[in-house]
């Protein structure tokens, strides 16, 4: 069994919140996370695009910057970027070989190992700042072992309720665990949840209070933004689609400013950000496909809102979902955006639901079933626009088909 096969096999053991194992692992590795500054980006939705935008702004400023995200779509090395480029697979493999015995000794979980692996890779790459996307929750997530200079909490909505809590207030308190007393923080959560975050005594800027945004749509090209901070206005463009894309770009800009990044670098980074699989447009059979990992009701509402703003009208929609998700809530949000729904499943993930179990949630909308992502794409009409959304595992299998790439073939659980 290769080291990567060994690591992927550990996905089956699930998620085990807590910081003891990852701390033990990092100690055995010589505390690599102490060799660079860090930013934690958490939230229910939008944390990936916010983190990617912030990392692009830091890189544009001349700062050697790492970006840690999860899950990956097509290649494991996507999780570890340095100045916008994947760490070479050979380097990742070598580092994992060295991490493995220590991880076994610490009895670390899959995500704890991946977090420690990222810290080791970033330290050895001479990174100055690492932007770390939080995995699940915040307070007990493995990434919270770092000591961030700044933290971002994008949004809070119901998701992973079996672990994080049954209410948005409980989830907000879990996510607020990434904040540090007296240190800068930026958030886009609903104002009703500000007190939950402020209880951590961070120096908090909130969207709609210290951070004001005026957004002008550029259609499929993104947004022009004027962002008013307490001490400066910032003007920038972002290619991120949807009102939530504009908000996430604004959060990243506010975070970058608080980290000392100047306006020119913020503009360059915002304009050049790339965030695959999330409101990403790719060509297909003379038309285009919009990919989006809208896997919870809040994300589905954001996708439907973005499509309304783009003036598309109802579109063919390919959808798949993992077990444990609020499929009824997602389907309710997406139904109005769909001219028809093609239901399928990602073949590499045992967690996904069979298409026939999804069908009742789309009653009243024309539904077809497809056995695989390839079959689902074949059902799309030529030309025009279509949407593929839901599970990121599905996005991860569809995207290489659109690009002609060869994906990994290991099972996907996390």
TrEMBL record:
Keywords: ATP-binding, Ligase, Magnesium, Metal-binding, Nucleotide-binding
Catalysis: reaction(s): (6S)-5,6,7,8-tetrahydrofolyl-(gamma-L-Glu)(n) + L-glutamate + ATP = (6S)-5,6,7,8-tetrahydrofolyl-(gamma-L-Glu)(n+1) + ADP + phosphate + H(+)
EC class: ligase
EC numbers on record: 6.3.2.17
Record bears the keyword Oxidoreductase: no
Required cofactor names: Mg(2+)
Boundaries of every Mur ligase C-terminal domain copy: 277-391
Pfam families to which the protein is assigned, alphabetical: Mur_ligase_C (PF02875), Mur_ligase_M (PF08245)
A single GO cellular-component term on record: cytoplasm
Domain of life: Bacteria
Family: Belongs to the folylpolyglutamate synthase family.
Name of the protein described by the UniProt record: tetrahydrofolate synthase
Source organism of this protein record: Deinococcus terrestris
């Amino acid at each position: 069994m290769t080291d990567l096969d060994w690591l992927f096999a550990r996905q089956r053991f699930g998620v085990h919140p807590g910081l003891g194992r990852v701390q033990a692992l990092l100690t055995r590795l010589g505390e690599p996370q102490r060799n660079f500054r860090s930013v934690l980006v958490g939230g229910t939705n939008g944390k990936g695009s916010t983190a990617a935008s912030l990392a692009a702004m830091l890189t544009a400023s001349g700062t050697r910057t790492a970006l840690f995200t999860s899950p990956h779509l097509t290649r494991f090395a996507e999780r570890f970027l340095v100045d916008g480029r994947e760490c070479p697979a050979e380097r990742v493999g070598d580092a994992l070989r060295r991490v493995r015995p220590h991880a076994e000794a610490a009895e670390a979980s899959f995500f704890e190992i991946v977090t420690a692996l990222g810290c080791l890779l970033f330290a050895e790459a001479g990174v100055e700042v690492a932007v770390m996307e939080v995995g699940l929750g915040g307070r007990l997530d493995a990434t919270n072992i770092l000591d961030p200079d700044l933290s971002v909490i994008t949004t809070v909505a119901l998701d992973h309720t079996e672990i994080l809590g049954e209410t948005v207030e409980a989830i907000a308190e879990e996510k607020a665990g990434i904040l540090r007393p007296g240190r800068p923080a930026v958030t886009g959560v609903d104002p009703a949840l500000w007190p939950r975050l402020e209880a951590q005594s961070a120096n908090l800027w909130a969207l709609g209070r210290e951070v004001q945004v005026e957004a002008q749509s550029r259609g499929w090209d993104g947004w022009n933004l004027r962002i008013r901070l307490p001490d400066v206005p910032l003007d920038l463009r972002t290619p991120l689609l949807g009102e939530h894309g504009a908000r996430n770009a604004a959060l990243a800009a506010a975070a970058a400013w608080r980290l000392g990044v100047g306006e020119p670098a913020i503009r360059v980074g915002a304009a050049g950000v790339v965030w695959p699989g999330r409101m990403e447009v790719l060509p297909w059979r003379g038309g285009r496909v919009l990919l989006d990992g809208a896997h919870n009701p809040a994300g589905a509402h954001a996708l439907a809102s973005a499509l309304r703003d783009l003036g598309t009208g109802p579109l063919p929609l390919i959808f798949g979902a993992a077990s444990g998700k609020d499929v009824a809530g997602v389907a309710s949000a997406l139904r109005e955006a769909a001219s028809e729904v093609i239901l399928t499943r990602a073949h590499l993930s045992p967690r996904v639901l069979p298409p026939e179990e999804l069908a009742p949630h789309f009653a009243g909308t024309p539904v077809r079933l497809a056995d695989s992502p390839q079959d689902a794409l074949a059902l799309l009409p030529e030309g025009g626009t279509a949407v593929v959304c839901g599970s990121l595992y599905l996005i991860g299998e569809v995207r290489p088909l659109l690009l002609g790439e060869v994906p990994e073939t290991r099972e996907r659980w996390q």
